[in-house]
Design goal:
Elements: H1 3-15, E1 18-29, H2 35-44, E2 48-57, E3 60-68, H3 72-83, E4 90-99
Antiparallel strand pairs: 1-3, 1-4, 2-3
Length: about 110
């Protein structure tokens, strides 16, 4: 078995062991787009909303939206789409990798 074959098998096993989510942090003024516009943009991206937290701080709303089902490139495109709703929206995205319980077949070869 070649090293490339072993690495390919390990990468395949890793793909089955983790999932990626993205958390979008948005800061919106009270007169900026409502949650409905944000939701519509999320639906158009085919992202699966896992958690959505909204906090009010003075005249601003802070949204923390965790989504799954999309990759990094799609998350960057979604960030751009959310920011384009209004020039004053501030958007920051975190890419997170979640590891599930390891499989007994998962082995790393040196």
């Amino acid at each position: 078995m070649t090293t490339q074959t072993i690495l390919s098998q390990d990468a395949s096993a890793l793909d089955q062991q983790f999932r990626m989510t993205h958390t979008f942090h948005l800061s919106l003024g009270a007169s900026q787009p409502a949650a409905g516009q944000l939701e519509s943009t999320l639906k158009n991206s085919n992202a699966r909303v896992e958690k959505w937290l909204i906090l009010r701080r003075g005249g601003y709303y802070e949204h923390s939206i965790t989504v799954g089902g999309i990759g990094e490139a799609s998350a960057r495109a979604l960030r751009k789409a959310l920011a384009s709703l209004n020039r004053e929206i501030k958007v920051h995205v975190e890419h997170m990798l979640h590891f599930d319980s390891p499989s007994p077949e998962l082995r790393f070869h040196a």
